[in-house]
Structure formats: C-alpha cells, structure tokens
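Help! Submission page says 'invalid entity' but I think these are all valid:
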Amino acid sequence: MCESCGCGERTLRVTVSRGLLSENERLARENRAWFKRLGVRVVNLVGSPGAGKTSLIEATVRRLPECRVGVIEGDPETRRDAERLSRLGIPVAAVTTGGVCHLDARMVHRAFHELAASPPELLFIENVGNLLCPADFDLGEDLTVVVLSVTEGEDKPEKYPQAFRRASAVVLTKVDLLPHVDFDLARVAELIARINPEARLFPLSVRTGEGLEPWIEFLRA
Amino acid sequence: MHEAGLVAALAEELLRLKEREGAQRVLRFTVEIGELSGVDPEAFRWAYEILREMYAELKETEMILDLVPARFRCKICGREFPGDYFSLCPGCQSPEKTLLSGEELTLREVEFEVADV
C-alpha cells in the first residue's frame, strides 16, 4: 500500500536472476540438439577482420576431400566471402547481419535451414570479423576456434581475453610472416594458457602449408 | 560491444514480466554487470537512456547497475583473490584458478507498482 496517499497501489518486488543473454542461450541449446541429431560437427570461427578465417576454411576444405563440409558465412554487408567459398563447390549459407557485430543463435538457426536437407558432416560458421562481441553468443557449436594472425600483434589475448576464454583451439595464422613482425609466439602461447589452459594452439600458414596437418588432424579427431 | 542489443532484450524482458505480474508500472530494476563481462557500464547506461525514449512504458523506470568485482579461487592452494584472467595466485603463484564471480550479465530484481486488490 502506498503509505502517504492511500491510493490503493503497492510495490511488488520480484527476484528474476535471468541472464540478459538467456534467450540466445536457449536457442543455442536448440541448435546444438539439431546439429547432434543430424550428426553435424560444428566449428565456430571467431577472429578480427583479415585474420584469415575465410582462407583457413578454403585450405581446410581442400585438405579434407573425404569430408562433406558446409559453411555458414556471416558478414555485416555483402556476400563476397560466401561467393568466394561457393567456388569450392561446397554448400554455403550466407548471413548478412546488416551491420550487427556478431552472429547469434537465431541467425544460425535460420541459415542452417538452407543446409539441413543435405546436412554436412563438418559445418564451419564463419563469424563476423570481430574479436569482441561474438564471444558472448553461443551458437550451438561443438568447438569455438579463435583465428588470430601474427600481424595483429601479440597483445590481443590481453586485450580480448573473453574471445579466448571458451575457445577449444586458437589458430595462429600467417606464421610465414613471423620474421617480419614483432610477434613472440612463446609469449602469446603463455598468455593464452593463462586465460584458457585447455585451448590447443595451431600455428600455421595457409600460404606455405606449414602447420596445416596438425589442424586437420584436430578436426578429424 | 553490443550494449544496444542487450538493453533491447532487457526491455522486452521487463515488459514481459510486467505483463506476467499484472503490474501497472515498472518502477526500477537491478542489473548485475560483472567486471569481466565485457560490458561497459557507461555504454550500457547510455544505451538504456536512448532505449527508454522508445518505450513509453519505461520512461519513468529507474535502472540500478550493480557492478560485480572479479574473484577467483586458486585450484592449488584454495586461496580466494581478486584479479583478472591473467592473475596468478598471490599465495602460491599458480595460474590455475576457478572464476567465482565477475562474468555476470543478469537482470536480478524488478520492482513493480501493482494495484491493490
């Protein structure tokens, strides 16, 4: 009861304790169940623009000829990367987020409808180029993989710890450029281990092919 | 960060709860933001101020932000300490630790005005 004026209204206090991302988490659980039912292994690739996510997918597809690979390709604008991947002759569903900085479980759900009729064995979700926001959004994937190029600088794990926190693996791309940049591989490995001791590390170069084999083996396992 | 998207989801949740409780108004609510959640409290508040203009029902609604500090427990010696993902245990220098708090992004409590029946 409102004490002062007797207006016949009172205050009701409700404890909610509901995560602000809980709706996304619910949809991600649905995606996960769907992928599992169809036997699809899902890898969410997260990394800055230009880290080499699309190139990594291209190189991986070429080295996994026995595996049916599909891609959900997220981009804020344009379908350029999706078109580039289609040239590999694999199914690609493009998600143009209209400027949104990350993919969420709903977008992935919609996009996967395009692929579900003939489901791939391995599905890459190429997230929007961004090391910050995608970290918060579970898409229902089995593996989250951070793609970090050596040209981005060795301070990235310190600046963007959330991205590395839940990653199953970190792929360090463009290692053929290591002689030309200040990037201490051992230091970065130590920083990543501090945030996430379980994350596997794959230094590689798509250009020279160096280091690709362990990555392919990791995906096969 | 995507503070705008987060507050939009928050507004929908508040209106849904208001409906569920059959309340007249949402008076105030409390959101917990962990120090390591990646959400900037100032950007979050700013996004809320803008969003509020779009929802007539929330114009008078007060948002209380509760900032939750990051705390860890050492997996080796059990000591609890504040810090970030890179902190070593101040007792035994081990990097192995469990996060106790600091990643919250939670609508904790809502106060409504309801008609007395």
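Support: the input was valid. A stray whitespace character was the problem, and the output above is from the cleaned input. Residues 22-37 of chain A form the longest helix (16 residues).
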